[in-house]
Design brief:
It is built from four helices and five strands. The chain has helices at residues 12-17, 39-57, 73-76, 102-119, and strands at residues 60-64, 86-97, 124-135, 144-156, 181-186. It has a five-stranded antiparallel beta sheet with strand order 1-3-4-2-5, covered by helices on one side.
Length: 187
């Protein structure tokens, strides 16, 4: 005995979309008409989406160390650092309340990188670069800020210099004034 296959039942929406079916004069059901999408309305939708994205990004504060990696002047001298370098990267998201002190957050993330470097035998960080984005409290009722920190550096070994324990380009940091409380951290 072979199995018999039947087609699925017709969709109830087809009757609404079909204009060939007769309607009663007092019927409360309205026929749905396909609305053609015109070029002008499509352009208006795109413009509104761009404005919405721009307004959302207006509540973000971005700062960076610059376009190229930097090394502290004491470590940049010839012979101060051995040539072997190991690239390291750390991405951390903080939730802060009542303000954002970017220098403290960068120091903390840099300390994590320096610990990773020590685990592989390096004792200094060179070729450092960071990016920090502070997302404002627009959609959070508690007034907290979400801060994304991306820190890149190379672990190296130095026989003559100690690590300066400071992020590069601290002058580029943009903060939110207030007494910062770190609510959470996620790696």
């Amino acid at each position: 005995m072979s199995p018999s296959f039947s087609s699925p039942p017709p969709s109830p929406l087809l009757n609404r979309l079909s204009s060939s079916t007769p309607r009663a004069a007092g019927s409360s059901a309205h026929a749905f008409k396909a609305m053609p999408l015109k070029l002008a309305s499509a352009a208006n939708i795109i413009v509104r989406l761009r404005r919405t994205r721009a307004a959302a990004k207006a509540h973000h504060i971005a700062s960076t160390s610059g376009d190229a990696p930097r090394t502290h002047p004491a470590l940049a001298a010839d012979g101060a650092v051995l040539p072997r370098r190991v690239p390291l990267e750390e991405r951390v998201t903080f939730v802060c309340r009542d303000g954002v002190d970017g220098a403290k957050l960068l120091r903390g993330v840099r300390a994590l990188l320096l610990q990773q470097a020590a685990d592989i035998g390096a004792n200094v960080l060179v070729d450092e670069q960071w990016q920090m984005t502070i997302c404002g409290p627009r959609h959070r009722s508690d007034g907290s800020f979400k801060v994304h920190v991306d820190y890149y550096a190379c672990g190296a070994r130095s026989q003559t210099q100690r690590d300066p324990q400071q992020p590069v380009a601290l002058e580029n940091i943009k903060d939110v004034p207030g007494l910062m409380t770190i609510v959470s951290r996620s790696d």
